[in-house]
Structure formats: structure tokens, C-alpha cells
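Name: Sigma-70 family RNA polymerase sigma factor
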Amino acid sequence: MEDMLISDAVLVSNYLKGEEAALSILISRHQQRIYSFIYSKVYDRDVTEDIFQDTFIKVIRTLKRGGYNEEGKFLPWVMRISHNLVIDYFRKNKRMPKFDNTGDFNIFSVLGDPDLNAEKRIIKDQVEDDVRKLIDELPEDQRDVLVMRIYNDMSFKEIAERTDVSINTALGRMRYALINLRKVIEKNNIILTN
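Structure predicted for Sigma-70 family RNA polymerase sigma factor:
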């Protein structure tokens, strides 16, 4: 049978009727997209693998207990599950990316807010994507420090060792990165709060 011609909705339905192979097709069809999404948030292959497995354990459990009712929207549903598991991972490990030492600039600390409804979460995700694009506009040395500090949760000592500069230089680059990021945000008139 031509796997690609069968819609997600039919595969879900077949799986619920006891056809185990249907789930394998669904997983292989979407694994690259879901794996890439998780990796883009955690930057760690082992953690990505764990969250990916947990995502499909949750998918299977929800399907088996009849908790899936979003016909035709299988991928967005699975992506939401993986997104929530990523947030859980950061919360559990107290590694939600934050600017600890700059109280007035903490867009990253709101991303794990459990009270966000789906619509707000999509907006927050969009803001996060926009911020990533702005970060890409920074000079390379500043961008590297910012990404290591915020997304990889590295200490300034680790950053200094990784980039082969003094801790003061790493701190300085972070400071300039934040100043430049604010300028870009103001220039683009981006509003980071509700």
C-alpha cells in the first residue's frame, strides 16, 4: 500500500482499530519535523531523543484512552505535546532561558508560563522566533555569547573558556549584545510584553 497516500486521520483511525503498523507510518512521516523542532529548543541530542520518545509515549497513551479528537490535525497536536514537554524539561531542570542579571529584559522567562492559553503561546513562540532572528543580526562574537548564555544556559566562566577570552570580555560582549538587541528591538518597534 502507498503509505504517503493515506492521510494522518485515516492512519490514526486504523491505529485505533488495532493496526499497529499505522502508528509506525505516522511516526516515520513526522519524526524529522518533530525532532528538529525539539532540537531547535534544547540544543542537545540526548535530551532531544528523550523528549521525542516521551512525546510519542504520550501520543500513544492519549490515543489508546480515546483522548484524541482533532481529526486531520495530527501533526499540530503532536507538536503541541512536544512543545509542552520541552517547557516541562526546562522547568524541571530550572533551565528556562533567562537574563538573570538584567531585570528589565526577561522575555525568555515568560516562555514557560503555565497559564498561557494556546493562542498566547503561539504569540510567545512567534516573539521567540522574532527574537532569534534579531539575535542573528548581532556581530558574531556578541551573538555567540548571547546564545551560549540564554539558550545553552552556560556560565560566563564556561563561555570564557569556550571562546578563549577572559570572563570580563565575555561579560562585556553580553552587555553590548543586550544593548544592541534593545536598539534593534526599538528600531523595529517590537513589543515584547502583553
